[in-house]
Amino acid sequence: MAEPDTIVLLRRAAPDTADIDRSDLSFRREPELGIAKLRLWGRTADARFHEVAGIAAPNVRTAVDHGGLSFAWLAPGEWLVTGPETAVADWVAAAMATGADDVLAIDYSHARAAFLVAGTNVRAALAAHCPLDLWPDAFPVGAVARSLFGDTGLFIARLADAEGAPRFRIIVDQTMAAYAARLFARA
């Protein structure tokens, strides 16, 4: 297994975006959210997930919370880990310290931008640029997906409602953060 180069430090650049706070739509940056990807190889990836994460693997298109972190299913053998930035970094270091050849955990906090979007108009704002059905029957609390948002890739998670309005977390490539904000500003 390759050893990480400890001399190279990657820094998170603040996305060049402004929060949007209207009566029907809120779009807020999550600058301290840690984001990592866990990849496990082999036919028993879900069982191996339990060994690595300490919990049962989330079901397809869902997320589970454990120990202050959220583990979201992305694809067979692949999960997104989110939480406080230092907790995610510590978790990634611990996962990689096992030295197992079937485990790859990568901290993407420096490469992604996360936003909380909420409000009575949030589904319409998302639907204008995202092909997913985000109504509660098709996308309940705890559901996750990868999709397109305009011309960029998107990870989306349905969170618990806030103040009686739906709430989502979206994650895009850091270079596309300003683009995502512009799409929401025009919604």
TrEMBL record:
Gene3D superfamilies for this protein: Heterotetrameric sarcosine oxidase, Probable tRNA modification gtpase trme, domain 1
InterPro entries in the record: SoxG (IPR007375), TrmE/GcvT-like (IPR027266)
Protein name, UniProt field: Sarcosine oxidase subunit gamma
Coiled-coil residue windows: none
Entry superkingdom: Bacteria
